[in-house]
Amino acid sequence: MDSETIKKAMDLIELTNENICDHCLGRKFSDKIEAENNQERGKILRKEIAISNNSSNLEKYEKYGKDRKYEKYEKCPICEDILLKIDENLKNEAILEKIIAKIEYLDLEFNNFLLGSKIPKEMLQKDEDLNNELDLDVENIKKEINREIGKLLEKKLQKEVEFENPDIVIMVDLNNILKTNPNPIDEVKVRIQINPIFIEGRYLKLIRGIPQTKWPCRKCKGRGCKDCNDTGKMYEESVEELISEIVLKNSYGRSAKFHGAGREDIDVRMLGTGRPFVLEIKEPKVRNLNLEKIAIEVNEHSAGKTQYNDLKFTYRNRKAEIKVSSPDTYKTYRALVECDQEVEEDKLEKLQTLNIIKQQTPQRVAHRRADKIRTREVKNISTNLIDSKTFELIIKTQGGLYIKELISSDDGRSKPSVSELLELKAICKELDVIEVGNDR
Q: What are the backbone dihedrals phi and psi of residue 376, each rounded to the nearest 5 degrees, phi first?
C-alpha cells in the first residue's frame, strides 16, 4: 500500500476523532485497495496504519478495528453507524423481507429493478466535506447502501439490477432508521415506482367521426355534464380509447397515454398501412404481455371502426421520435374535391405546377396553433375526373401540409392553392390519409 494512501487514511481517522467506522474508512479508498467490500478495506487500512507506525496501534486495532467495543467508542461521525445497522438488517434479511412484502402486496410482475435510497442530507454533506478536505474522488455513502442492498436483493429475487431502463425502482427510505428504537427496521419505509411500458404499432381509422385521442367536453372540461351525457367527453370513442381499455385490462395498468405520429381530423379516415403510434401504459402490474393475442382482442373489440397492426414493445424515447416533424416524412392523401363550376380534365393539368406551398396557420386551428407561415413541398399529384364538378385528387406531400386549405385556399392563406390555379371555388368533400412514411 502506498504511503500517500496511508497518510490520507491517518488524517481521516484523526479528523473523525478515531470514530470512523470500517465501512466509511474503506469506502474513501475503494479505488486504492482490493477487497471484497468496503468494510474489509477499512480493516486492512487500520492494520497497515498500525504496522507502519510500529506502535501499540496494532493492539488498538485488535480492539477497535474488529468489533469497535472499547470504553471510548462513539458513533461514526459520517454515517452515525447507519451502515452497521443496515449491515445487521441485511444479514438477518429484515430489509429484504420488507421489500419483498411490498412487491407481493402490489402483486408486481417485473424482469429487473433499480435500488435507490434516502438518507439524511446532513450525512451526505459530511461525507462530501471530507472528500473535499482530503481531495478524495470516490463514491458517496448512498451508493454503497444502494449497492449492498441491491446485490443481496438480486440473489433473493433472482432478478438483475438495471440502471438504464428498470422495470421498477425500489426506494428504501432510511431517514428514520437512526431513531431510538429497539427494532430499527420498523423505521425503514419502502416505496416502489412502477415504470411504464411502451407499445408501438400502426393504426387504421376505418370510419369518419372518431378522434385520435380522448376529447374532453368543452363545457365541463371532462367533469361530466348534461351536454356530454355525463361522459366528460365530446365523442364517445377514440382511436386511443379503443386500444387502451383492452391493454389496461391485460396489464392492470393505472392509465394510458397515446402518442401519434401526427393526427388526422375527426372526419378523415386513416387507411393504407396506418399511422405510427406509441401507447404508454403507466404503472402496469403485468409487463410480459402477449401482444399478438392482445392485437386480436383489440381488433375484435374495435371491428369496423379502427384496426391496430404490428404491435411491439419499444423504448421511452420512441414516443418523442415519432412526434418529431422531419423534412423526410411524407403523407399521401386521397381527396374528393367538389367545385362550384364545371371543370374539364385538361384544366386539371394546371395542378401539376403545385410544388412549394406557403401556408399561414389555417383559420380553423388558429385558436390552438401558432400563427405563422409554414413552407411545405408537394411531391406528387394525380387526378381523376368523376363528374363535371367533382374530381379525385391523390397527392403526396411533405409532412405538415394542410390539405383542406391547399384545396380551398383558406381565403388566400394558402398559396398557391387548387382553387387559385383552377380559378374557381373548390372544397375538400372527403379526405383519406392513405400512407404515412419516411423517405429515408
A: -135, 160
* Entry pTM: 0.85
The C-alpha atoms of residue 11 and residue 302 are separated, in whole angstroms, by: 72
List strands edge to edge, sheet with 168-173.
160-161, 112-118, 168-173, 189-194
31 is catalytic: no
pLDDT attached to residue 181: 64
Closest CA to 78 of 32, 7, 38, 19: 19
- How do the domains of the chain map onto residue ranges? 1-75, 78-194, 197-321, 329-438
Judging by beta carbons within 10 Å of its beta carbon (0-12, 13-18, 19+), is residue 370 exposed, middle or buried? Answer: exposed
Give me the sign of the Cα torsion angle 367, 265, 434, 388.
Answer: negative
DSSP H helices in 65-163: 82-91, 94-106, 121-134, 141-157
| Arch. (CATH architecture) of 329-438 | 2-Layer Sandwich (3.30)
* Residue 357, helix vs strand vs coil: strand
- What CATH number does domain 197-321 carry, 3.40.50.300, 3.20.20.450, 3.30.70.2510, 3.40.50.720? 3.30.70.2510
Same fold, 78-194 and 329-438: no
How much is the average pLDDT of 301-325? 92
Q: Which of 31, 265, 387, 410 is catalytic?
A: 265
Which residues face 269 on adjacent strands? 432
